[in-house]
Amino acid sequence: MPRIEVFSDFDGTISLADTGCILIDAGMGYENRKKMDGQILRHEMTFLEGMERWWGSVNLTYEEGLDLLRSEKLDPGFTHFYQYVKSQGIPFSIVSCGLDCIIKDFMGWHLGKEEADRLVILSNHGEVVGRQWNVTYYDDSPHSHDKAVCIRDSKAAFKKMVVEEQKKQDEAEETVDQKLEEHIVVFCGDGISDLSAAREADILFARKGRDLEKYCKIHKIPFLAFDTFDEVTATVQGLMEGTLTTDLVNKRQRDSCAA
């Protein structure tokens, strides 16, 4: 049985809408934000520079910000997906360039506060003072949070564990290599903040019709397009139960890339 870990973006992936964009549009407006999106995609501006301008434009109290988000929806398949990975002991982390406070409150509305408190959330830290939204970035990369690092750290930690086991049991190098191949990192995303992680994941789910899918097609990065987390659950469950092989999933990813 493979060891599977799942990482997922939050805005536009777990939540159907981008909660950060809703708040930022209330500040600088939709057209100005989209213009900056284009500048980032053309490498005229770093994502971090965009983040600083975006959050600097927000002029809301925290409660006013939450009120703008209360009617937004969770992906309809996410709750079932979360229950499945939890029941199987599959590590799951939310990896986001959004704000931890918003993510935790939003997930609390949909999963309950206690369950939301158990989530592993790797994101930027937000603190609102009056109407000023202050952001402490997860790292000092141009992405404000390089999501690829989380995946690389996960793979490095697994490799270290396997090598240590090999030393204790005096296993052959071939056995170590085989175990490393059985470590599968799944990443789910939708947008430009997910580009760095796209090249690191073993299985990449890109939400249909969004920037990440378009980017993968342009740059020939293998991926699986998805509408809901039900499709993610089906793939993970198939790999766990042996009804799917990594070779078959990889073929599907290459086919999506070539389409």
UniProtKB/TrEMBL annotation:
GO MF annotations, alphabetized: phosphatase activity
TM ranges: none
Pfam families per the UniProt record, alphabetical: HAD (PF12710)
Protein origin, superkingdom: Eukaryota
Record keywords, A-Z: Hydrolase
PANTHER family the UniProt entry points to: PHOSPHORIC MONOESTER HYDROLASE (PTHR28181:SF2), UPF0655 PROTEIN YCR015C (PTHR28181)
Protein name, UniProt field: 2,3-diketo-5-methylthio-1-phosphopentane phosphatase
Protein source organism: Linnemannia exigua
Lineage start: Eukaryota, Fungi, Fungi incertae sedis, Mucoromycota, Mortierellomycotina
